[in-house]
Inverse folding.
């Protein structure tokens, strides 16, 4: 698939078939994605691929902790709640998703269930936990590098028929992820990518988020009119 077509067709998948993803397929995805650029070719990333019982344990404990009122405990600093235009965009996609799923505004149980799905990494059969070397903190540059790797993983997966959702909710309790996956203390847990074969019957999978017109965020400097 040509790159432009691949980018435009890829969508965030929130409903997965309960079908195992073969390890060789994941290995091929990472083999492609690792060609992502990094600052000075430092390649600061590590990928921990979870499935089966370890993933189920992370899911269960993460969800139980968050439902029980535990504080978020992520390795990286959070921006807090979104405000202004960023909050507007967040609300807009939530409205689309809830509309597709038939979740009414006053349906608190279903809205809560949606939040819990995020904590469970949307029940995907595989989770790729992305980390970077702690010695590189404060990590603005390596955060950028991991973003490039992450998007490469998502595109390479889509090209092989797999859907993904980049999912911070699934690692809200990074201490649990670290313990279960035996992630070394000298690595910072950045985010995770929930992955699996898309369930085309899951309504939210058809939702496409809006994008601002280029005029809203692009400036051209030095070009002739």
């Amino acid at each position: 698939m040509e790159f432009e077509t691949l980018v435009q067709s890829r969508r965030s998948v929130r409903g997965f078939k309960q079908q195992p993803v073969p390890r060789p397929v994941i290995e091929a995805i990472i083999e492609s994605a690792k060609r992502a650029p990094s600052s000075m070719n430092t390649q600061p990333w590590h990928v921990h691929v979870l499935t089966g019982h370890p993933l189920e344990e992370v899911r269960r404990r993460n969800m139980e902790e968050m439902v029980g009122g535990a504080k978020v405990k992520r390795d990286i600093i959070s921006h807090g709640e979104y405000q202004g235009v960023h909050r507007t965009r967040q609300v807009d996609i939530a409205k689309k998703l809830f509309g597709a799923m038939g979740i009414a505004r006053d349906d608190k149980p279903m809205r809560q269930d949606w939040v819990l799905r995020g904590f469970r990494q949307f029940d995907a059969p595989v989770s790729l936990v992305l980390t970077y070397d702690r010695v590189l903190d404060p990590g603005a540059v390596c955060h950028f590098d991991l973003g490039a790797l992450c998007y490469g993983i998502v595109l390479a997966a889509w090209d092989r028929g797999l859907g993904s959702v980049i999912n911070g909710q699934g690692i809200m309790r990074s201490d649990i992820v670290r313990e279960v996956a035996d992630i070394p203390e000298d690595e910072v847990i950045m985010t995770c990518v929930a992955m699996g074969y898309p369930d085309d019957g899951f309504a939210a999978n058809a939702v496409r988020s809006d994008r601002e017109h280029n005029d809203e965020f692009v400036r051209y400097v030095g070009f002739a009119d």
